[in-house]
Structures are given as C-alpha cells and as structure tokens.
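User: Some background: our group keeps a shared notebook of sequences we're curious about, and every so often someone picks one and asks for a predicted structure to add to the entry. Today it's my turn. The entry only has the sequence so far, pasted here. Could you supply the structure so I can complete it?
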Amino acid sequence: MAHRTDRLDLADQALREWDAVVLAAEDGEIVLDRSAFYPGGGGQPPDHGVLLWGGVETRIVGARKGDDIYLVAAQGDPLPAPGMRVRGAIEDARRSALMRTHSALHLLSGVVFRDHGSLVTGSNMEPGSARMDFNLPQVPAGFKETIEAACAAEVAADGAITVSMLPRAEAFAIPDIIRTATNLIPDDVEIVRIVDIAGLDTQADGGTHVASTAQIGRIEVAKIENKGRGFRRLRIRLADLG
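Assistant: Of course. Here's the predicted structure to add to the notebook entry:
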C-alpha cells in the first residue's frame, strides 16, 4: 500500500502544531493525511502529544511506521472518525529533549570516529540521556575526560546542524556516510536523508535534530562499560536534563 501520510516531521523539525484530516481510525490507532509525530526509529523513541477535534482531546502515547504512520491513542480515549478534521500537537518538552539528545549522539559519534576511528555498533536514547556502543578495542587513560572536553569544544563552536535529501548514489559517495558497523539503510531506499554537523559528522539519519551544536548543551559522559572484547558502551546525559 502506498504511504498516504505526509511526513511533516522530516521537513520541519520545529513544527509542533498543524491541521490534518483523519484517513483511518481503528483498534486504538489513527492515520492522518499529514503528521509531525516522529514514529520512532534509529534509537529515537516516538513522539507523544494530542489530537484535538470537536471539543474532544485524544492523547497520543506513541507512533509507529508501517505501510503508513500509525498514531497510538491512549487506552480508553475516543478516536475521531475518518474524514474528520483534527488539530495535532506534539509534546514540546519531550520532542525538544529528544532532538537535543539525538544531536548529542551524532556529535559523540563524530568525536569518537575522528579521534579514535571507532564505528557505532548500537545506540538508544530517552529524553536527556542515551547510550552509544562503539567497536573500541582500548580505552586510553583519561578517555572520559578527553571525550567530554572534545564534545564541549564542539558545542562551544556552535556548528550548524543541517538536513538534506540526496539520491542514494550521491549520498553513498560521501566518505564515511555510514558511521555504523552495519549499513542499516534498506536497499530499496532511493532518497537518503542526510544530517550534517558542520566540520565534524555527516550521517544518513531519519531522526529529529536541533539546528546547532550550541543548542545541545553540556554533554556529560556518565559511564563507560565493557560490552565484550573490543566493544565499549558510553552512557551520556545532558547536564541540565539528566
């Protein structure tokens, strides 16, 4: 089935409210013709928010990507009927924290790759905290402090974080475009979304991000864990949210 939902979140990461028409609603899930709810993926959890319609509020507690973008309504909340006009709204504090956290992970990935040549083997995040796994055989003395200082320097530099869409061949011509140990981009994806931190990190990515490194805030390395021979897990948090 062709996708019917226009992904507003991919074009405008600052968008928090919009009007839409309900295309389908059943089994606690809603499909809209236009949606800014990030459906989750790449380690970033889905957005939360509300739909307002006819004087009624439907809480959205998740979203998922299938043959469309399916918004998950809170259990017991009413569902608008197909054809109804609704007003969508994203929970701003959660989305903004996730944008900062996701950008922090890209910054961390860029620093570790630049300074140690290590690729990402996995990641996950919650608002204000995250973990990222690397194929890092050795942990040098003072590694935690050195990584924190390098991240702080990139935040202070206020580097621009930009998003672009490129044809697959053009995207894969960019050196080190895949910073994960395994290429996770499906073979049938013809247009690749690129997130670039100026001068540091360029990656294929579908998530939401802030506009500059300064907007991330101070990154703390909370813990470094040994995840087996040659693999390390770095847990980070944003100082004002952790």
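Suggested note for the entry: The helical segments are 8-11, 92-116, 143-156, 168-172. The mean pLDDT is 91.
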